[in-house]
Amino acid sequence: MQAGADMLDITGALSALDWWQSAGVDTPIAEEPRNWLAEHRVTAATAPAISVAAAPAALPNTLAGFHQWIAEAPDMADGSRQGRRILPSGDAISGIMVMIDMPEPADGAAGSLLSDDSGRLFDKMLAAIGRDRASVYFASLCFERPIGGQTNPAAIVRMGEIARHHIALAAPKRLLLMGQAVSRAILGTELISARGKLHGVNHDGAKTEAVATFAPRFLIQSPARKADAWRDLRLLIGGIEF
């Protein structure tokens, strides 16, 4: 009986972590009060050593090669493990690319992104703009779900570089970014500020326009924001021929 209760506690804790990340809360705060305006000095004796990381290997310059790299690379910035990653799917020449932050908990066993209730909502969102999963190119920022559903803030810059290279190879006409982590990685902007406008994304001369909106899991938890998401979808397809 105790083991079952512990499992419920763990499940509830992971669910809470997902909720706070979707809401944009990703910085831990100590329980003891702190004067954030006070000057903080680090002495030579306590300053941490700075390690110089090796330069990352060059990324493949074709989309097929990039897919193979995702599957076979031993180490990924997002911490995903070889053989457990979920590859992009759909039609890379459809003109629309959709990027979510990470797989959902059930996606690893299913072998595909958004295989749960959030996926059913996602399918309805695509249907509302006359699309389905086969007629968009669908990928994730993290290729495997991180432990606890938390992206690593220290890795977000490298993850963004990889994602922008991915976008440049796919060369969509429009890009839909779903969730806070994706907005930060691709646009360098908080989701709440990024919404409601088209953003130019230019990587090595490859240009596209991006629209930021809420992750499906957040819309399930906050259904009042579905009207805002619908406006984002109309912006995504507005004024362009596919």
Architecture overview:
- InterPro entries: UDG_Type-4/5, Uracil-DNA_glycosylase-like, Uracil-DNA_glycosylase-like_sf.
- GO terms for molecular function: 4 iron, 4 sulfur cluster binding; deaminated base DNA N-glycosylase activity; DNA-directed DNA polymerase activity; metal ion binding.
- Its EC number is 2.7.7.7.
- The structure is a single chain.
- With 242 residues, the protein is of the alpha/beta class.
- It has one domain (63-237): Uracil-DNA Glycosylase, subunit E (3-Layer(aba) Sandwich), CATH 3.40.470.
- The protein contains nine helices and six strands.
- It has a six-stranded mixed β-sheet with strand order 1-3-2-4-6-5.
- Helix 5 crosses helix 6.
- It is globular, with a radius of gyration of 19 Å.
Kindly report the spatial arrangement of strands forming the biggest sheet: 1-3-2-4-6-5
The total beta strand count reads 6
Q: Which structural class is indicated by helix and strand composition?
A: alpha/beta
- What's the CATH topology name? Uracil-DNA Glycosylase, subunit E
CATH class term: Alpha Beta
> How much of the polypeptide forms β-strand, as a percent range?
5-15%
Superfamily at the CATH H level? Uracil-DNA glycosylase-like domain
